[in-house]
Design goal:
disordered N terminus; alpha/beta; 34% helix; single chain; eight-stranded mixed sheet; three-stranded antiparallel sheet; disordered C terminus; Rossmann fold
Length: 458
Amino acid sequence: MDYWGSGWMIGADPKFQSDERVGRPFRPDATPRARRRVRDDSPHLWRWVALLTAFIPLSFVLVQCGQAPSAGTLAANVPSSGASFDDRFPKPQFRDRFPTASESFEQRPDLAPKRIAQGNGQAIKQATVQAAAQPVPTPYRVASLAPQLPFQRPPRGDETMLVSLKSSAFPYFGNNPRTDEPFLNVSSGSRHGHRGMGGRVFWQDETFSDNRVLMHVPETFDINKPGVIVVFFHGNGATLERDVRDRQRVPQQISDSGVNAVLLAPQLAVDAADSSAGKFWQPGGLKRFVAESADHLASLYGDPRTAKAFADMPVIIVGYSGGFVPTAWSLEVGGLGNRVRGVFLLDAVYGELDKFASWVENNRSGFFVSSYTHYTAPRDRELMRMLREKGIAVAEDMDRPLKPGSVVFVETPEGVTHRDYVTHAWTRNPLEDVLVKMAAGTSGLMRIAASSPAPSSR
């Protein structure tokens, strides 16, 4: 056989020939021994040829994977039509995201119990019982847009409560404005106290730590009508419950007056002969006190929505005995301005005459009443003189209504005691009488209840 014509040439001058038995090339001039060695090694050689035949295409793939694609390759992947990204990847339509009713899975609420029942063991049985015991959910209720009934305040009687306020008189850690020195000016170990004008020390934890306020809303009070807040500053040696509420009957006098009024009475020095004003010495002290009280008065009234009305309500300040100090400073720096519509002093002009005179002169829309015994008579007469010198008319009886701008001084007869002055002055229950005369002389502020005859007729 002519191996040269069989296509096994690699060039024009072939150097190898093939053995017809295995197709293994060998040189034509090879010796018989060399040819015999080629034939003996041919099975091993054949396996290597087969292995290389399979490996060479794979190597080409690996070489291509290790190289970055060419610009031509990238260009070949761009469609010739010039379509944009949005054309090639359109946004999903509503029907693509949400199946139609016919495509949705049918909801089968009974599947869960059946699947649980397929399990084994006590735990599965308990789970089945619990699943069966679950209540069937009720349909959602849609809120009605129809007009609703107005808020109905629950029926109630007189409401009286002690409430703690941050803005109440004490505790107080500032300065005494009279001396510009710390109010708590005595220390003993961890205790701090205040040395009063008489030299006696009152300890802070015993005398100046009660921040409670006595609040009272009469049964007849109506937030929808003109009303006032009565701020009552008690005297020395008093507590809110024993004296202001029970002995002096301040809440009861407000209710019995029938005037549309509520009460705020802060605890001052607890059962002590001290007239310190605490936080009412500070600028804006009375304003903060009334503002903080508004939410609590609204709650006591039974309608939290009325807090804004209470916060804006006019104020009447009543000061008894040692309460003259917080009264005077509240008029001077309290921050309520012309919201203070009246001042009533009960045997209380022991000092601060300039502050009282200044307020009367600059607030001709408010009334001023001072009733006194022989204890305070000299200072009351001095205050009357100061006012008359300013051209302000001063009356000395309580026989007429209290109109805006009224200034009245009432001297009470001998036998009237200072201790009982809040309930027995020129008349029984003088606070009740003043409120009635204020309502009679103030346009729009009328009595809305009359459970008993007016005090002036007694």
